[in-house]
Specification:
The structure holds two protein chains of two kinds. Chain A is of the alpha+beta class. Chain A folds into two domains: about 25-110, no CATH class; about 130-215, SH3 type barrels. Chain A is about 25% helix and about 15% strand. Chain A is built from seven helices and five strands. Chain A has a five-stranded antiparallel sheet with strand order 4-3-2-1-5. The longest helix of chain A has 15 residues, at about 65-80. Chain A starts with about 25 loop residues before the first helix and ends with a strand. Chain B is of the alpha/beta class. Chain B has two domains: about 10-45, no CATH class; about 50-195, Nitrile hydratase alpha /Thiocyanate hydrolase gamma (Nitrile Hydratase, Chain A), CATH 3.90.330.10. Chain B has eleven helices and four strands; from the N terminus they run αααααββααααββαα. Chain B has helices spanning about 15-30, 35-50, 50-65, 65-75, 75-80, 115-120, 125, 130-135, 140-145, 180-185, 190-195, and strands at about 90-95, 100-105, 155-160, 165-170. Chain B has a two-stranded parallel ribbon. In chain B, helix 3 packs across helix 4 (about 65-75) and helix 4 (about 65-75) crosses helix 5. The mean pLDDT of chain B is about 95. Classes of the chains: A alpha+beta, B alpha/beta. Chains A and B meet through helix 1, helix 2, helix 3, helix 4 and helix 5 of A and helix 1, helix 2, helix 7, helix 8 and helix 9 of B.
Chain lengths: ~220, ~200
């Protein structure tokens, strides 16, 4: 796993077009987003699987943002058996609109639908606000949402969010495996040492219990 | 047929505009996507759901101390009072800028963003440069955006690594005391609610 997507702390240049008010810079950007949302509604994968599909792209570093969205969508459609490779290559027999397909009239309600990621089940919280923790020495394999820059670091729990779906297993369709989620605050000095701009500045991350150990 | 090591997407045209058109044609022919639904989705995020929503939340918090208290206590519920609910806003947290603290939000691993209050993220928020730099050199990034961190002000960066989504509550600009809620909302830019701008000017 190269974690090409794990960008925090890397060297990079100037930030582009800061006052940009254009929502979609090309029609195909809008279509790429809309196709992702419409296909997501088919229910063949979950949000963690779609993020995992994007970060696994071999050309992650060179594809533009919405190119990543289209490529990952195409891969998922085949991997989840929604389309065959022959169909993706363009050999599609015409079919009536599937009952699962998102209808235009249902779009506003679908986008306003609240589907929480909290779950009533899962282990009891091991930590409370104020506790100090150390994160795992490295992000786990697969879809692990511990950024490399915060691995092996000491932070403080500043809030608890109850049990949330664990992306690591959900992205692989191995169950939601809900785990306590916390906001963990790190000082800039803890993360960046003497490269920190101001030692008292903080960086906070939302991390699941298995991502850390008691200090 | 592709070789084993080839990703399925390589079966589509590589040029993005052609690729989008080809994929849409396939999905529509197969009956998986209603083209009218694609247009409705685009229209929703082009016209209905955007930073104008978040600006109303901020303006309400500025004029209504009880609402502000609820927003800081349980942002998801307080924002729902104004009708802003749904996709990518399921677990909201509001963070308040003060003379002591300046907050800014990033998603270093992808592009997580509070859609019901801010809409679709701008290209800069999704850029490699912002994702890479916001956590390591937030003050340099803020300077690039023209934001001067005050003497004694601490910078707090929120990296959205789970399904919690952050809204920055900017400081109310000086001189805005007489303004009504609608006029106040007009002072609240998208960037101010990400933390890369201040509210105002009047």
């Amino acid at each position: 796993m190269t974690r090409a997507h794990d960008l925090g702390g890397r060297d990079a240049g100037a930030i582009p077009e800061k006052e940009d008010a254009v929502i979609f810079h090309a029609d195909w950007h809008a279509k790429a987003l809309a196709m992702n949302l419409a296909c997501g509604a088919l229910g063949a994968w979950n949000i963690d699987a779609s993020r995992f599909a994007r970060e696994q792209l071999k050309d992650y570093a060179t594809l533009s943002y919405y190119e990543k969205w289209m490529a990952a969508l195409a891969n998922l459609l085949v991997e989840r058996g929604v389309l065959s490779e022959a169909e993706l290559a363009g050999n599609v027999a015409r079919a009536p609109l599937s009952p699962k397909a998102l209808r235009a009239a249902a779009v506003p309600a679908a986008m306003r639908k609240v589907i929480p990621y909290t779950r009533p089940d899962g282990p009891a919280p091991q930590f409370k606000t104020g506790d100090r923790v150390r994160t795992l020495p490295a992000p786990g394999p697969g879809h692990c949402r511990l950024p490399a820059y915060a691995a092996g670091r000491v932070g403080t729990i500043i809030s608890s969010h109850g049990n949330h779906v664990l992306p690591n297993s959900n992205a692989r369709f191995k169950g939601e495996n809900p785990q306590p989620l916390y906001t963990v605050e790190f000082t800039a000095t803890e993360l960046w040492g003497n490269e920190a701009e101001a030692g008292d500045d903080t960086i906070s991350l939302d991390l699941w219990q298995p991502y850390m150990r008691p200090l | 047929m592709p070789h084993d090591h080839t990703e399925p997407h390589s079966l589509l045209p590589s040029e993005p505009e052609l690729r989008a058109r080809a994929l849409e044609t396939i999905l529509v022919q197969k009956g998986l996507v209603d083209p009218a639904a694609l247009n409705a989705l685009i229209d929703t995020y082009q016209n209905d759901i955007g930073p104008q929503n978040g600006a109303r939340v901020v303006a309400r918090a500025w004029v209504d101390p009880a609402f502000k208290a609820r927003l800081l206590e349980d942002a998801t519920r307080a924002i729902a009072e104004l009708g802003f609910i749904g996709r990518q806003g399921e677990h909201m947290v509001a963070v308040e800028n003060t003379l002591e603290v300046h907050n800014m939000v990033v998603c270093t691993l992808c592009s997580c963003y509070p859609w019901p209050v801010l809409g679709i993220p701008p290209a800069w928020y999704k850029s490699d440069a912002y994702r890479a730099r916001a956590v390591k050199e937030p003050r340099a990034v803020l300077a690039e955006f023209g934001v001067a961190v005050l003497e004694g002000q601490k910078v707090r960066v929120w990296d959205s690594s789970a399904e919690v989504r952050y809204l920055v509550l900017p400081m109310r600009p000086e001189g805005s005391e007489g303004l009504e809620e609608d006029a106040l909302a007009a002072l609240v830019s998208r960037n101010a609610m990400i933390g890369t701008a201040l509210a105002g000017p009047l």
